[in-house]
Design goal:
single chain; 376 residues; Aspartate Aminotransferase, domain 2; Aspartate Aminotransferase, domain 1; four-stranded mixed beta sheet; 40% helix; binds pyridoxal-5'-phosphate
Length: 376
């Protein structure tokens, strides 16, 4: 059996080793330290926000972001149905109820038209969403030009966990709305093995997030507590890893973009297949490349391609299963028109990682070409 090819494996090497070892030898092992401060400033500078708070995960950043925007038990928080479960889980951690909105057909991101309709529905009931959480799906920023005017005073927390390094209309993902979230989980565009960041221009929101993330300790030697806190801060060692990754971010994005270009070439003449997410690869970070397959035109399905690749030790995966179809959210409110469900049933994500070597890329392309040849 050949070596397994993964969709998006961590891409680390000598630079990461050097940064991590330096941090270890500096003695800053205890959670916080100078690499955390430096990592926060570097990320804030890159995205262009005033503040960045390094946390233990993107999910923790979502949770504290929602609390910071004032989301309380019983509130309604609007988000995209087509997302990773962490977005919806964080809403539930805050005690609020998610309201899932269907996708724009081309990008899979939250549909501005359906969002507008949802806000009207709520207004008719005399209710108002406590927050809006758009998601930048697979490294493509949501359409903030359309979304932000619709929010009309509803605080916006942008889930840019998948989109670090991407742009919308020339503005960096992670800089939209009142606050945003990045993830540095192992499979993301860059990693701290596990970690996340809360970004905002709001000094009070950042201060409050830092406080809640360190067990809500009041400044007294005996640790006075007037709030329930969390242990959500990023460790200094992991921040050092992140600083090395940040130096390589543009190179890693370029590699993923080049891989996307190869897939475009491969599928250009294949009827019924589209590269998912539209054609704006220069603005996207190209975190994951997915295709959608119209079986009635192609004569084969995304699932059949996935099965073929699995047999050759090449990982692939359907798009995110929409949250309104997940058993755990069966009772949640949603406004859907079938788009996300259709994308889930016809989409497949292909190996997209920046750590893939030339030989692994060729093996993947050959495997797909072989499948297409047999089906033609
Ligand atoms: C990965 C991801 C998260 C969660 O980030 P973690 O760092 O894994 O907690 C949240 N939202 C989306 C859309 C993600 O893809």
């Amino acid at each position: 059996m050949p070596d397994q090819i993964y969709m998006s494996a961590p891409d680390v090497g000598e630079l990461e080793e050097a940064f991590l070892l330096d941090a270890l030898r500096s003695g800053w092992i205890a959670p916080l330290g100078p690499d955390v401060d430096a990592f926060e400033s570097e990320i804030a500078a890159r995205v262009g926000t005033e503040h960045a708070v390094a946390l233990s995960s993107g999910t923790a950043a979502l949770h504290l972001g929602l609390l910071g925007l004032g989301v309380k038990p019983g509130d309604i928080v609007i988000t995209a149905s087509m997302t990773f479960a962490a977005t919806a889980n964080a809403i539930v951690y805050a005690g609020a109820e998610p309201f899932f909105i269907d996708s724009d057909a081309e990008t899979g991101n939250i549909s501005p038209a359906l969002l507008a309709e949802a806000l009207v529905q709520l207004a008719r009931e005399g209710r108002r969403a406590a927050a809006l959480v758009p998601v930048d799906l697979l490294g493509k920023a949501a359409d903030y030009t359309a979304l932000l005017p619709l929010a009309d005073g509803v605080p916006v927390l942008s889930d840019a966990a998948e989109a670090f390094g991407a742009y919308h209309q020339g503005q960096p993902a992670g800089s939209f709305g009142d606050a945003s979230v990045l993830s540095f989980n192992g499979n993301k565009i860059m990693t701290t093995s596990g970690g996340g960041m809360l970004l905002t221009d709001d000094a009070e929101l950042a201060r409050r997030a830092r406080y809640l993330a360190t067990q809500a300790r009041q400044p007294a030697v005996h640790y006075e507590h007037v709030d329930i806190g969390y242990n959500y801060r990023m460790s200094n060692l992991l921040a050092a890893l992140g600083r090395a990754q940040l130096r390589r971010l543009d190179d890693m994005i370029a590699r993923r973009r080049a891989l996307r270009a190869r897939y475009r070439e491969l599928f250009a003449t294949v009827p019924g297949v589209e590269i998912f997410g539209g054609r704006n690869d220069e603005a996207d970070n190209c975190w994951l490349t997915s295709i959608t397959v119209d079986e009635s035109v192609a004569g084969w399905s995304a699932a059949e391609l996935g099965e073929h690749l699995r047999g050759l030790a090449i990982e692939s995966r359907p798009l995110w299963k929409p949250m309104h179809l997940q058993p755990v959210f069966a009772e949640a409110r949603s406004l859907v028109d079938g788009t996300a469900e259709h994308l889930f049933r016809t989409g497949i994500t292909l190996p997209s990682g920046s750590a893939l070597g030339l030989e692994q890329i060729d093996r993947t392309i050959d495997a797909i070409s072989g499948f297409l040849g047999a089906r033609a």
